[in-house]
């Protein structure tokens, strides 16, 4: 009864508009209180204890740092220089600018761990450029939102850090390595419909008339940005710093580029950058802390074991179970942000993964790819919301274009599901598994 009340209360609070974190904590607190009502009232002390325990984890220090990195590179002018460099390589022509937008979003994923920050950085440059070349703004916003979703797969990734905290067996370095190839495959999959749609509908007719940046000059201007992922990921691989320390290194490197090299960030801009990063980080960490209460109530009330036993007794094939998980996450991704999905459902799904002996690093990549799909799947679609705001178009105008990109991302997901080595080969090769 109490377990059922836990979920009913959570869903009810969500439906009336209560923020996700508050709904999680309120439902968990009520369930813990009822479970201890006949024993001792101070059982409720588990609430503040779990609130603190959820935040007192060293890897979480990387979250505000990587969010800050996204804000810094958004304002440093790195995205514009990367775009010029990419255009100098692929040239001009119908469908080339959407390809460049996705390629630059993938590359920036190796610097920032935040999808919305990536969408803002790429969208601020590419949407206007694509509009000048004759691309509809709704289409441009869709392409930017889809490309930015690869951010949480390409290391470093805030989503992988959260997953590693929930699943200690999956380390941050292993997850970062595992996300590399799936992220690249997802990006390539998104390029196919983006270029095809542009050419089918005659978009970008004016693109041939735009000048092509000179290669060597573009390379020189983009070199500092190109070096960022090498520094961050290479430093972690060589053991110079941990993933958490890498986030701090990335912050200072970004500030050096923006304030010293490109001089696009002034002292007065720092307050705005720090404020934006603090606000977003506070939202993420508050949800993490409040969800800890909900997760503890799940384990205390023994909600998970009966679910696992029911699945085991059902006799369903593991691929059927995987398909059901994908379908459920697809629906949830339309209404919940990725961090909330992880915090609510990873504790429920881990015993199922253990039942079928799924590799937890591979399983984490699968869940993260579904979260990436949710970042540009309406109605929540945080990346699409940011891109449409930059493009100054209603989100519903982007729906026809986004549908094709969602299909492409799901095709990339299918590749990772059918061939787990796509995710596990690199971490095994590097000795993380």
From TrEMBL:
Q: Which Pfam families does the entry link to?
A: DctM (PF06808)
A GO molecular-function descriptor: transmembrane transporter activity
Transmembrane stretches, by residue range?
51-73, 85-111, 117-135, 142-166, 172-198, 219-240, 246-265, 277-299, 319-348, 360-381, 401-426
Q: Which InterPro entries match?
A: DctM, TRAP_DctM
Q: Which UniProt keywords apply?
A: Cell inner membrane, Cell membrane, Membrane, Transmembrane, Transmembrane helix, Transport
Q: Membrane topology per the record?
A: Multi-pass membrane protein
Function in brief = Part of the tripartite ATP-independent periplasmic (TRAP) transport system.
Assembly, in brief, is:
The complex comprises the extracytoplasmic solute receptor protein and the two transmembrane proteins.
> What's the protein name?
TRAP transporter large permease protein
């Amino acid at each position: 009864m109490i377990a059922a009340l836990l979920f009913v209360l959570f869903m009810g609070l969500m439906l009336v508009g209560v923020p996700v974190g508050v709904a999680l904590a309120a439902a968990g607190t009520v369930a813990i209180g009822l479970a201890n009502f006949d024993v001792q009232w101070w059982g409720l002390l588990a609430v503040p204890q779990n609130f603190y325990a959820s935040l007192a984890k060293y890897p979480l220090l990387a979250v505000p740092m990587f969010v800050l990195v996204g804000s810094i590179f958004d304002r440093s002018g790195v995205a514009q220089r990367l775009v010029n460099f990419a255009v100098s390589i692929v040239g001009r022509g119908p469908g080339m600018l959407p390809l460049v937008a996705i390629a630059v979003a993938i590359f920036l994923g190796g610097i920032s761990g935040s999808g919305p920050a990536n969408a803002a950085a790429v969208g601020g440059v590419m949407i206007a450029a694509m509009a000048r070349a004759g691309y509809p703004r709704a289409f441009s916003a869709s392409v930017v939102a889809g490309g930015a979703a690869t951010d949480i797969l390409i290391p470093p990734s805030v989503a992988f850090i959260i997953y590693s905290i929930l699943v200690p067996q999956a380390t941050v370095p292993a997850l970062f390595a595992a996300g590399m190839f799936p992220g690249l495959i997802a990006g390539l999959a998104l390029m196919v419909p983006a270029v095809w749609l542009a050419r089918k509908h005659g978009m970008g007719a004016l693109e041939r008339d735009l000048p092509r940046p000179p290669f060597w000059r573009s390379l020189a201007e983009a070199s500092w940005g190109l070096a960022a992922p090498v520094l961050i990921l290479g430093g972690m691989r060589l053991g110079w710093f941990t993933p958490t320390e890498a986030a701090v290194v990335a912050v200072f490197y970004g500030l050096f580029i923006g304030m010293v090299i490109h001089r696009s960030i002034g002292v007065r801009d720092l307050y705005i950058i720090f404020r934006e990063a603090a606000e977003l980080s506070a939202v993420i960490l508050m949800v993490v802390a409040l969800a800890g209460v909900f997760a503890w109530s799940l384990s205390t009330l023994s909600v998970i074991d009966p679910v696992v036993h029911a699945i085991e007794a059902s006799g369903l094939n593991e691929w059927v179970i995987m398909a059901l998980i994908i379908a459920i996450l697809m629906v949830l991704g339309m209404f919940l942000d990725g961090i909330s999905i992880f915090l609510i459902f990873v504790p429920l799904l881990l015993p199922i993964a253990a039942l079928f002996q799924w590799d937890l690093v591979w399983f984490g990549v699968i869940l993260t790819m579904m979260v990436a799909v949710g970042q540009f799947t309406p109605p929540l679609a945080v990346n699409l919301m940011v891109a449409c705001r930059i493009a100054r178009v209603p989100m519903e105008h982007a729906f026809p274009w986004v549908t094709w990109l969602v299909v492409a991302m799901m095709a990339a997901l299918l590749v990772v599901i059918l061939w787990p080595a796509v995710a596990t080969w690199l971490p095994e090769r590097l000795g993380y598994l």
